């Protein structure tokens, strides 16, 4: 089901991680899945853009630790499943990005099976936002220990003068979303600065644990522009899925294998039923079709600030638009002068040619780098998306205008795939028109608005619903009995607040036996999980509508 909904099937982003405390002592549950963009009303309601990266599980394996053998066997089994079930013989060749933490077994598997894929390191692990002590068998790899410890603690440990630590932090954040040429040039300056001030030990530690050098160019797995736009979330999507979906499935921890398998089958069945309800909703790489209200307002605000926006045509037909990074009301009040053409040329040279801005010291340089973003609209931007506009349009990723635009130097764009600057840039060149308003979200405690129309389902056709009020003549007693039975059933399943909706559509217990979860969800808009339990209770001869294909990888 996930594969049929995926838009870009040629450049896959695969995530893998292990979960302890689920299986009995000494074993681990490894999960492998795909990453794609989805629209989230919850994020939009919090004042953020609604696009988020979500994890869609494809395979599980129970193993003794996260070893190379375990990851190789589960990836091989997953590739075989794609070839047999979906007729995709080159699944491993289509993997463009591999997301995981700094695990020795996962890294060994990547070098063996996914050497062509980008190694997307996790920012949270890089800065040390993980559990400080891990007692699982990971060997004594110094680099893995340093990644688990985090860059900040490593720097504090090796710095002779702790007063330089804030400057090092600013330098890391300033380089985070630079293209590789600018990234390498900036870090050359950073290393030279700290070597000049007698901090050779911290320079050596950073180079050894967190950087790589090829043909004289410095690079790092935590660099944002290394991965496809909108996918700079590392393993956060899978970690979020672990907490909200996987761990919620298990009532206890340290379970035997048969109990774990039974729980995973129940989870897979539920996820399949939910996927059937959204079978027509694509899983995007490129944001398409949704615009959030707050970005519409901010984009208009940015376009009104013409004193702080420079536009120029590039040599290859790409339009270059320089904007300020921050357009908050506090920042706008400090913008007293218009940026000069010289600043625009310097920012353009920074992002496109890797030439650093001319500043007096390293601190001023880091401040200037984080002050500006460069929006590219045209052929140069399309290369970053790993998907041509024609392929995006053919896959249903509309409007394809998002595939024409990237925002260099912007964290929001690296994570979400769109931002205030990109919206303003596309509106400036009229790639997008007026953003489409998204419907208001359903508020908890309020009855949902009834929908009077419903398309026939795959197996069930909606029964005829009478618009006449319920008559209580000589059959009034029977109607009262049906009403009482329906009330008791809805109370058991926590749906009593929606009794009126069931009565209005004459959905008595006898009629419910003819309904499917899909049709009932479309009519009432209630959670599919609750409706599934309700129909299972009233349908004595019901049959499952979603099949589950299970691959068991014996490790």
Structural commentary:
Strands 3-2-1-4-5 form a five-stranded mixed sheet. The chain starts with a helix and ends in a 17-residue tail after the last helix. The chain has 26 helices and eleven strands. The model is unreliable at 134-138, 434-444, 446-475 and 541-555 (pLDDT under 50). 34% of the residues are buried. It has helices at 2-5, 41-45, 68-86, 91-94, 104-113, 123-127, 142-149, 151-158, 165-175, 180-196, 200-210, 236-249, 257-277, 293-304, 329-332, 341-353, 362-369, 379-382, 389-394, 411-416, 420-428, 476-492, 499-504, 509-512, 517-524, 528-538; strands spanning 12-19, 28-39, 51-63, 95-99, 118-120, 212-214, 217-219, 310-313, 319-324, 372-377, 405-408. Among the domains are: 1-122 and 229-285; 293-428, no CATH class; 484-538. By secondary structure, it is an alpha+beta fold.
Largest sheet: 5 strands, mixed
Low-confidence stretches at least 5 residues in length (pLDDT < 50)? 134-138, 434-444, 446-475, 541-555
In one word, what is the shape?
globular
Strand content range:
5-15%
Mean pLDDT: 77
Protein name: Protein MAK16-like A
Organism: Cladocopium goreaui
